[in-house]
Write a structure and sequence with these properties.
3 helices; 79 residues; mainly alpha; single chain
């Protein structure tokens, strides 16, 4: 998870830097901001998934897991 977060931050910084030509100081500051953003997004996503599962029946949970797997597979191919 931490490696995934670091990879996302690095990729995003690279895209931003390519267009904006950031200074080293700006890169350092933005890196911290992006790390905070994605950490909070990951935590919110985990909370959301737990709440959603509480509403679903076991059969629905199984189907929901399949849907999420299919979505992840599509997103992986889109990269």
């Amino acid at each position: 998870e931490a490696a995934d977060l670091a990879a996302r931050v690095k990729a995003e910084l690279k895209k931003i830097d390519a267009r904006l030509k950031l200074t080293t100081d700006q890169k350092d500051k933005l890196k911290g901001i992006l790390e905070e953003k994605w950490s909070k997004m990951d935590a919110l996503d985990t909370e959301y998934r737990a709440k959603m599962r509480d509403v679903l029946t076991p059969a629905q949970q199984t189907e929901w897991d399949k849907i999420k797997s299919e979505y992840r597979a599509k997103m992986g191919k889109a990269k």
